[in-house]
Amino acid sequence: MKLEGKVALVTGSSQGIGQAIAIRFAQAGAKVVINYRSHPEGAEATLSKVQSAGGECHLAEGYCDNDRGYAVGADLGMVEDVQRLIQAGIDHYGQLDILVNNAGIEKHAPFEAVTEADYEAVLNVNIKGVFFATQAMVRHLKATQRTGRIINISSVHEDLPFPNFTAYCVSKGGLKMLTRNLAVELGPLGITINNVAPGAIETPINTKLLNDPDTGVTKI
Ligand SMILES: NC(=O)c1ccc[n+]([C@@H]2O[C@H](COP(=O)([O-])OP(=O)(O)OC[C@H]3O[C@@H](n4cnc5c(N)ncnc54)[C@H](O)[C@@H]3O)[C@@H](O)[C@H]2O)c1
Question: To 10 degrees, what angle do helices 166-186 and 116-123 make?
Fold first, then answer.
């Protein structure tokens, strides 16, 4: 994979799958906009690994900056933060070519116990944030008359039932339909959009669940 000259923005890249994607993109030569919500130290760890892929890290006022990576704090559950994040990447590097909608959360509760706050938290990050990040990216690509790549980190639970995680399944099912719809709408513009739907990978999102012998969840 050769990504020299490309700029990729990876949401939720201060840990887990998003961090691994950011590092891999840097290894392939891309400049990477790293996003974190509340853990700048996680973004620093990503930056330092991006640095070992070729960049130098400069840390200033809560964010890191180097020639391969740039870290921006933004809450993907808030549309104004989402738009500010995309604009920060464009302002810093002059362009974005790849958007990875990776940030995601899940809340474990039996259906009858799900609160409105938890429902909104999951849907806001996993689908509303993706919707408006993608919209801001598409506006940028259209305004600059360039093609681009959008990659959504969905889940096997876009299709596969997962009892006690109904809001999560609703969000990932919605993400699948968003992706299918936009693939048709944006394809003629040279903008591709794809879902990657992983099975269980041990990261901070599910360490507790995967190590609880009573859940019956299988590690793969
Ligand atoms: N780990 C798995 O087994 C698995 C399986 C299928 C899909 N996924 C999906 O992969 C993606 C990454 O998950 P992970 O396993 O790395 O989990 P993780 O908890 O390690 O990482 C999630 C990332 O999202 C970020 N995030 C959460 N809420 C945010 C917000 N409001 N604003 C900005 N960032 C926010 C977190 O800071 C973190 O960096 C998620 O979309 C998840 O649904 C994970």
Answer: 30
